[in-house]
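Recall the central idea of this unit: under ordinary conditions, the amino acid sequence of a chain determines the structure it adopts. In this exercise we apply that idea directly, starting from the sequence alone.
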Amino acid sequence: MDLLLWRHAEAVAGSPDHERVLSTRGEEQARRMARWLARHGPQGLRVLASPAARTCQTAAAFTRDFVQVPVLSPGGGAHDLLVASGWPVAERPCLLVGHQPALGRLAALLLTGVEADWSVRKGALWWFRCRERGGARETVLRAVVAPELV
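Accordingly, the structure predicted from this sequence is:
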């Protein structure tokens, strides 16, 4: 299974938090990463996004066919994200569009087995794959892509 973590692109400051929208720079970050995903990402992605405006806008840069999932909201936990994605056994690859610190904690959990406060940059994408080798599951980090590099 492939699991991709995409932190929302840069948003404007403001309140309430869930209504913050992407800045002009954030819109460009989302478009760039969406183009990269369309060219290089796995086929048949199931896309799940936080209901926050900035995450919905980020996801919509890639596809209009995404599902808003409340556990991806700010304050959600890494284990909640794993359950929502179906990791590691879901039949389809999954793209989670969410927030810090949950995405960073999930990245740490996937690679080390322990949650830690890792940083995922705004607009960046982390791509993981679960594979089986010698009867054991392995997690492979396939890519970490920053929006300014695509």
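The beta strands are 2-7, 46-49, 66-68, 94-98, 125-133, 136-145.
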